[in-house]
Design a protein that fits this description.
alpha+beta; 9 helices
Length: 202
């Protein structure tokens, strides 16, 4: 595991943003899309710089949200799995957003992914997005400098690798590993699993 964190840190340094090579805690606030009582839980392991993750959020999640989350059948929980320094910065800011602005901010990041990811100064753009979501610039900058939050996000990634063997994004863990989906699969692939699990509970 130490080698994993060192490798991750090297990637971050190459991209101009340091990722800690150790983790102190996993105190990342949980954000749920859907009803807490939903019988199916989907943990989405994503990176904000992953184009396939953006594809899922743009093309697939809206349909799944309408059919399954809004109807109380499935709840989605985003788990950060940063793959580079820029993705880590975006994840940090997302976790500092007011709770009611978390999911809109996530959607904004994915919708505009190719704007901020390739920008010479992505942090400047990320800070502007945070302001739009109601996070003052001084608090946003403090969030980006929060090494404990960085450590917590890396702990989430490390735990996912150890528990579920996750190596790429997006990966979807359903009901604590009972099922899994890798990659930005179409809504129909998710629906087949959801409908089967729901039928088994009847």
């Amino acid at each position: 595991m130490k080698g994993f964190f060192k490798a991750l840190g090297l990637v971050a340094l190459l991209l101009g943003a340091a990722i800690p090579t150790h983790a102190k805690n996993s105190g990342v606030p949980q954000r749920v899309l859907g009803k807490a009582s939903a019988p199916i839980t989907v943990e989405e392991y994503v990176s904000f710089t992953c184009p396939h993750c953006a594809e899922f959020y743009e093309k697939t999640l809206p349909e799944l949200e309408k059919r399954y989350a809004d109807t109380g059948k499935v709840k989605f929980i985003l788990r950060d799995f940063p793959t580079d320094g820029r993705g880590l910065k975006a994840a940090q800011l997302s976790r500092c957003m007011p709770e009611e602005q978390y999911h809109p901010f996530v959607r904004l990041l994915f919708k505009n992914q190719m704007t901020w990811v390739v920008a010479p100064d992505p942090e400047k753009i990320l800070l502007s997005y945070a302001r739009l979501g109601g996070l003052p610039e001084d608090k946003a900058k403090a969030c980006l400098a929060d090494t404990e939050l960085q450590d917590a996000l890396i702990t989430v990634r490390g735990d996912a690798t150890e528990k579920f063997g996750i190596e790429s994004t997006p990966t979807f863990i359903i009901n604590n590993g009972a099922e899994r989906i890798k990659g930005a699969q179409p809504a129909a692939e998710f629906a087949k699993i959801f409908d089967r699990l729901l039928a088994a509970k009847q």
